[in-house]
Specification:
about 700 residues; mainly beta; Immunoglobulin-like; 8-stranded antiparallel sheet; 5-stranded antiparallel sheet
Length: about 700
């Protein structure tokens, strides 16, 4: 249901119409079980960095920022949803800013409003401001215009044929009347505005994607072993910094009028004032986050990393974190070992907390900072971190030190999605074209593939191991079972397709799928449905505590004290949906879908509201509560409404439509502490038929109920 502005906590319960009268269900949980906000793990992944004249633009964790004062202050710019996830390039000319993604949009008012360009062909589009106009390079070819509001002129099919639908031009620049484009690690040039292209010859090495620059009228190309220079428009090349540490681990390349810059792994930036013949290390930060992009305005240098945006004022100034994107919560995955909780960020490694999320300490494997963090798993009191490019790291001392685990030679685009440990045997599930399970009996030193080819295309998203029995949950295929430590597998026909999310609690297994939740208490032999007819549970999370277990559904947290036989509702997190759950011995800790971290004391979850029992008892210390009778049928549409508060004061009861529009104030009066009942005349307020959200509020705390009005 839509949540109106100012609403911080709400729950949506069932309401229905019976015999054309108003039927109301109790719709609130126990409010003494409250979530509190943990300290955020902050920092954002810089996706695109662009400077033009006196402005710097940065796309950080799918949010666009703009600064016109050398990065002192930043303004968040709202862009269409269709652009944020796939933004590839930013270009500006005069007062027009253009964004390239699957669609091309432009703004003439500094990002206040956006218009879809008439050139938005298939595949990713990259846009460049070159000389007097804009170029769009994509799968449909190269297009040009001088006025973004006019139609685009198609200049060439050549680049489309070279790049294919998924690899458009990476970079485009001009110098000396020539246009240069880099694609598929090869540099091309055009002397007629992009109509005819010629490959720049004279080298045997390939240019890294996005890594060519123009420095003092010379053309520079960064390769795997050196920086090459050409003074004759790319026809001949000379190596000018062979075997340099700056180029060996380069990930970004940039040049302005004073320096050449190379960004690399480990938060390092090198600069050269000698055209690349010698280099100086001007490290950006100590977090180790890879430098993905570099830009400058005058003498202010900006470095975009996988862990945030940094700037340096003056050629010899100190690096400082920019405000843009730094306050953006970045938590992506979570695990706990004993009383320690660990949060994995997508781009800035692992953070650890020993005080239930109050403070965080960077605790990353040094090897992983050049890659994207994917999964963090606790198994057998060890912590495992999985990254892109098949990276796997293990810590047995609460993240103090890490060991790199050797994995089988598979595609660099695959990564470990799940880990299970049973005795001295490890199992690793992979995301790859054909999902696989690998087994190691020597602490990860060597691996053998043990999966069933019938897994088909998908991802081994979860694993459970107990003795010789192993369960593998495969997306879109269901659950597979092995009774001989993975040597042979059989599909578990008792589980419906899609049962890929597996959890293990005190020798009891649970499998989630799009149909509901099933449970096995006999070592995965038989399964029973315990979902209470819930649907769309594929994204649900589950975590175990010594005397209970918890699971999520959308924004809601549920608890079971009888091993999953029945569940009762606890509370909703304040914002977003629950994407991760963990338990650190005292608190239930949740990551929301927007990367924020919340916690709730397990002691506060002792009571709650069962999904099928709206008459649950109210705890005496509830701060604020609104209660509507469960099923009251009245031909006059008059409803008794009960309130429980612990502080006397003025309270209001407001009604909001399903569209989030406030339709009226049903009461506004002073209430004493304790229980109070008022008669609410729905008809007198002339509410049209439909679903409404009632909000009882004292200006700080709020409680909610949903009603259905029918005449």
């Amino acid at each position: 249901m839509y949540m109106p502005s100012g609403v911080s906590v709400y729950a949506v319960f069932r309401a229905f119409v019976l015999n054309s009268v108003l039927v109301v269900l109790l719709t609130t949980g126990v409010l003494h079980a409250q979530w509190s906000r943990c300290t955020d793990v902050q920092g954002g992944r810089v996706q695109v960095l662009y400077s033009n004249d006196n402005e710097i633009w940065a796309m950080i964790s799918q949010e666009l920022f703009r600064s016109s004062d050398n990065g002192q202050t930043w303004t968040a710019v709202v862009v269409p949803d269709r652009v944020t996830e796939l933004l590839t390039t930013i270009a500006k000319k005069d007062s027009v800013i253009v964004l390239g993604a699957n669609d091309v949009v432009y703004s003439t008012d500094n990002g206040t409003s956006w218009t879809l360009s008439d050139q938005s062909g298939r595949g990713l589009n990259r846009v460049f401001a070159v000389d007097n106009g804009f170029y769009i390079a994509g799968a449909d070819g190269l297009f040009y215009c001088t006025d973004i509001r006019s139609r685009w002129e198609k200049r060439s099919d050549t680049l489309a044929k070279v790049s294919g639908s998924s690899s458009p031009v990476n970079e485009m620049k001009s110098v000396g009347g020539l246009l240069y484009a880099n694609l598929r690690s090869t540099l091309y040039k055009s002397s007629d505005g992009g109509r005819i292209w010629k490959k720049c010859d004279g080298r045997s090495q390939s240019i890294y994607a996005n890594n060519f620059a123009i420095y003092r009228q010379s053309l520079l190309a960064l390769t795997r072993d050196s920086v090459y220079e050409s003074t004759d428009a790319g026809d001949t090349w000379a190596a000018i910094s062979s075997d340099s540490v700056a180029t060996k681990t380069a990930t970004s390349f940039f040049a302005d009028s004073a320096f050449i810059y190379v960004g690399g792994y480990g938060g390092v930036v090198y600069r050269s004032s000698t055209g690349g013949r010698s280099w100086e290390n001007i490290r950006v930060n100590e977090t180790g986050a890879m430098i993905s992009s570099i830009a400058s305005i005058g003498t202010t240098l900006f470095a975009g990393s996988l862990g945030g945006l940094f700037k340096r004022d003056g050629w010899n100034g100190e690096w400082k974190a920019c405000d843009a994107g730094q306050s953006r919560p970045a938590a992506a995955a979570m695990a706990s070992v004993d009383s320690m909780v660990f949060v994995l960020t997508e781009s800035n490694g692992v953070y650890a907390s020993s005080d239930h999320g109050k403070t965080w300490k960077h605790s990353s494997p040094p090897f992983m900072m050049s890659t994207r963090g994917r999964v963090i798993i606790s198994a057998d009191r060890s912590l495992f971190v999985c990254t892109d490019y098949s990276g796997l790291y293990r810590s047995t001392n609460y993240g103090a030190t890490w060991d790199s685990i050797s994995l089988p030679a598979i595609s660099i685009y695959d990564y470990v999605t799940s880990i299970a440990v049973s005795g001295d045997t490890w199992y690793a599930g992979f995301k790859q074209a054909y999902p696989g399970v690998y087994r190691s009996t020597d602490l990860g030193r060597s691996w053998e593939r043990v999966d069933n080819p019938s897994f088909g295309i998908g991802t081994v998203s979860s694993l459970i191991a107990a003795g010789d029995v192993v369960l593998a949950g495969v997306d879109y295929r269901g659950v597979y079972k092995s009774t001989d430590r993975g040597s042979t597998w059989n599909a578990d026909d008792s589980l419906r397709p899609g049962g890929s999310a597996l959890y293990y609690h005190r020798n009891i297994a649970f499998a989630y799928n799009q149909y509901g939740i099933v449970r096995s208490t006999d070592l995965f032999t038989t399964w029973t449905d315990v979902s209470r007819n819930e649907v769309n549970t594929m994204n649900a999370k589950m975590v175990s505590a010594p005397d209970a277990m918890y699971r999520s559904r959308n924004a809601s947290l549920y608890k079971s004290t009888n091993d999953g036989e029945s569940w009762f509702y606890i509370s909703d997190i304040p914002a977003g949906t629950i994407s991760q759950l963990s338990y650190d011995g005292r608190y239930i800790i949740a990551i929301s879908s927007n990367g924020k971290i919340y916690r709730m004391s397990a002691d506060d979850t002792a009571t709650g509201v069962t999904p099928d029992d709206a008459d649950a008892a109210v705890a005496a210390d509830d701060a604020l509560r609104i209660v509507l009778a469960k099923e009251i049928v009245s031909p006059d549409n008059i409803r008794p409404v009960s309130f429980h508060i612990d502080t006397p004061g003025r309270y209001s009861l407001e009604a909001f439509s399903a569209a989030g529009v406030r339709t009226g104030v049903l009461l506004n009066e002073y209430l004493e502490a304790g229980w109070a009942t008022r008669v609410l005349d729905i008809a007198a307020h002339d509410l049209p038929p439909g679903m409404y959200l009632l909000r009882l509020s004292d200006g700080g705390h709020s409680s909610f109920a949903t009603i259905m009005v029918s005449r």
